[in-house]
Amino acid sequence: MIFAVVEDSRSQAEVLKALLKSEGYQVEVFANGESFLAALHGGGFDFYVIDWALPDISGDILVGKIREQCGWDVPVVVCTARTEEDFASDILRQGADDYIPKPVRYMEFLARVNVLLRRVQGKTPSLLRFGRIELDVEGRRIRLNGQEVELTQREFDLAVVLLNNIGRVLGRDELLSSVWVREADVDTRTVDTHASRLRKKLGLAGESGLMLMSVYGQGYRLDAVNR
């Protein structure tokens, strides 16, 4: 799961990033609204933490863009120094799921994040997002930066296995048995060929926010690229 943290205070952003990483999440930090919107245009994230008072673009515009591009299932938390009741209700009406008063109380922040994640994980998402990649398992479709990528049946199956095991080393024999389960005439070179094709087609050299690494003597590992 990849979090986007939009916060112009470097120290605040680094603390939030460290907190989320300690819970096992990937985090991308943006110091202003412009850089965040450029990344959002390239593909969505799984969870958004937005500073309402940025130097260049107001929080309501960012929240609106998130809802416009990513829908209403993705969680959005706003951090703000303003705590008046009317202002807080405006934030929620404009599309945020929750707000965190500044200065941020970090244990409360993590608790609120976890509440929203439990709510989201109780639903069955129509699309799964991994960096800039959108995966529709039921429809057997995959998109990079919003554009559908044409994959063969085996390429798609391999992509699903890799995306569902980000950060884990998968041996070539394990991948063979998962993807080519009924094909006895294939060997590990087939895995290498398909992995090479996926790296090009899905931008798995970092362009998609994911990096497919060959682990010497073992197999492959797909990692999220932190910024």
Task: Give the topology.
Elements: E1 2-6, H1 10-22, E2 26-30, H2 33-42, E3 47-51, H3 59-70, E4 76-80, H4 85-93, E5 98-101, H5 106-121, E6 128-130, E7 133-136, E8 141-144, E9 147-148, H6 153-163, E10 169-171, H7 172-179, H8 188-201, E11 210-215, E12 219-224
Parallel strand pairs: 1-2, 1-3, 3-4, 4-5
Antiparallel strand pairs: 6-7, 7-8, 8-9, 10-12, 11-12
Give a verbal description of the structure:
- The structure is a single chain.
- This protein is of the alpha/beta class and 227 residues long.
- It has two domains: 120 residues, 3-Layer(aba) Sandwich (Rossmann fold); 97 residues, Arc Repressor Mutant, subunit A (Orthogonal Bundle), CATH 1.10.10.10.
- It is built from eight helices and twelve strands.
- The strands form three sheets. It has a five-stranded parallel β-sheet, with helices on both faces.
- Strand 1, helix 1 and strand 2 form a beta-alpha-beta unit.
- Helix 2 runs parallel beside helix 3.
- The longest helix has 16 residues.
- The protein is elongated and about 70 Å long.
- The two termini are 14 Å apart.
- The model has no long low-confidence stretch (mean pLDDT 87).
Précis, in short:
The protein is built from eight helices and twelve strands. The protein has 227 residues and is an alpha/beta fold.
